[in-house]
Amino acid sequence: MKLRAHALLLCAALASLNIFASPGHSAPAIMSENISMEEVKAAQQGWCNALVAISSTYEKDGLKKAKSLAGDVIDAAYGYNLGPVAFKPTWATGEQTFRPTRRGALSYFVGGDSKYNDKGFAIGSPEATRSPWVDCTIENAVIQLRGNTASTMGWVHTTAKDGYESTVDKTWTFIKDENSDLRIILHHS
């Protein structure tokens, strides 16, 4: 008990001397890594908005521009900059079921990579005559907030321009990185 009391007194003395303060400041800077419900829902809506934007870009401007946009989305939304992502896409099968690399994710979203056999989910509906996605909504069944990580499970509902509708089971895990940006580190459909 005496040791704990001495440690508390030492901390109080150091705090009064601003030992814990950032240089040039009177109080310490505080970084919160906790993820909020609002941040999770914003990240999910951002993913939906990006899906529709990639599909629209493909329809109007072709594969090259859609691929560029999809690459930007992957770089902003996924944690490939942190290491492999646990990504199991909706339409992926066989040896190519899992996409731990950025290249695999990009192929999944827009196709056009000879290493993979992808239709390009973000391009639009899976029918023979592709129809671009025009709407995407999230319906969460579970959201878990755990400090700097959050996991969600539920459904993604998409609607194509021709009226085709799809519902996909979706599980995501997000982490807040050192820049306070949410990154998808697990995506399972």
Description:
- It contains four helices and five strands.
- It starts with a helix and ends with a strand.
- It is globular and about 55 Å long.
- It has a five-stranded mixed beta sheet with strand order 1-5-4-3-2, with helices on one face.
- Helix 2 (37-61) runs antiparallel to helix 3 (63-77) and helix 3 crosses helix 4.
- Strand 2 and strand 3 (149-160) form a beta hairpin.
- It is of the alpha+beta class and 189 residues long.
- Residues 1-22 have low confidence and may be disordered.
**Uncertain spans:** 1-22
N→C terminal distance:
53 Å
Averaged pLDDT, please? 87
* Helix-strand string: HHHEHEEEE
Total number of strands:
5
Secondary-structure topology with pairs:
Layout: H1 2-16, H2 37-61, H3 63-77, E1 86-88, H4 102-110, E2 133-146, E3 149-160, E4 165-176, E5 182-188
Parallel strand pairs: 1-5
Antiparallel strand pairs: 2-3, 3-4, 4-5
What characteristics describe this protein?
189 residues; 4 helices; disordered N terminus
Q: What's the gist of this structure?
A:
By secondary structure, the protein is of the alpha+beta class.
